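Hi W., the pyridoxal-5'-phosphate complex you wanted:
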Amino acid sequence: MPCLASLMQGLSQFKLPSEVMTHTGPTRLETQLQHSGLAEFNPKTQSAPVALPSMRTSTVRFASMEALDEALSDWARGERVATYGRAGMDTHAALERVFCQLEGAQRGFLAPSGLSAVTLAFLALLNTGDHVIVADCAYGPVRRLDQTVLRRLGIEVSYCPATPDQMASQLRPNTRMVYVESPGSLLFEMLDIPALAQFSREHKLVLATDNTWGSGYVYRPLDLGVDVSVVAGTKYVGGHSDLMLGAVMVNDPELVRRVGETHYAMGYSISADDAWLALRGVRTLPIRMREHARNALQVCEFLASRPETVRLYHPAWPQDPGHTLWQRDCRGSNGMLSVELALNNEQARRFVNALKLYGIGYSWGGFESLVELVDHSALAFHSYWTATDNAVVRLHIGLESIDDLIADLSQALDKAKA
Ligand SMILES: Cc1ncc(COP(=O)(O)O)c(C=O)c1O
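Structure:
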């Protein structure tokens, strides 16, 4: 088993974030996150509050028709101009810039939840009669989107393991898009994103991915050749379990146009207060993420020492099959892991009920630890899952003391078989 010191060394050897040129020279993402979204100086007083206020308004007023004309012509040229509240004001614009910095994107479009951002991507990129190939490890509710709205619109969906070979076998003359999630939902299966990007380019398909796991800080799919990155800001970007948020991030001008026009037509809009909360939360993303990742590795180490543990699913764990891809493509990890335990359903329920510090709940990415007893019917869709009767438990490892978190797991495991 790898020793903790070497695991931690692995985490500290992450590649440095890519440099980005600003007017003061190159700065790193950690720096940008502290200097973005500050209030502008007042031209008269040459002073400004540090924090940008939550700019709540339903509309915008103009001093003259000429000012409105100028705003409309800027908008027609593709600039981000607000002539009505739905487009979002400075607070929203600052958050869009933060998402662009995180993801290395030219443009970002905000949505009121992660799932609505997924929906926006599908509706913007697909037409009636099109076919899309979806990774079988994608976030479960994508299947609900397929079975309801996409089916009604005449958009066909196939699911398969997310490798170029498997996807090639699903190609149809009307295939237009590949939609994946890396690492995959529930079992954190690492995908070879550069290989999928090459496959998509060869077949002239748009490659979209859910990047909620990486949230732009530890994984940047657009840099690896993906065309569209979708992020549930509800998770690590917000980071405090107090808001719902999504974003669709793009580089290519034609994709910017398509996502932008659908975003506008569908009336996607988020509250200024949620944008403000996300801006506030994201400043600590780097330190939160590092701490979640450190704690999660220590939990892996503890669980690996327990006789009940059959398998760990966490790409930063050296024995995870995706570890090499993770080392190649990611610059860090997070607090998510799943563990297969040699417990039957009744014992697993007793284990979960005995946990005192892990809330029983579905989300992740906040400051707190959470536990989910994963339903086998949800795992059945994942080709990565070798079906057994063992319990699978997904943990979000929060920012509590790692000693307390491990002690809690230990006492709960002891009770599971009692
Ligand atoms: C991977 C992933 N993508 C998207 C979503 C949807 O985000 P939201 O809950 O903000 O709609 C979730 C939510 O759990 C998720 O886990």
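The chain is about 40% helix and 15% strand.

W.
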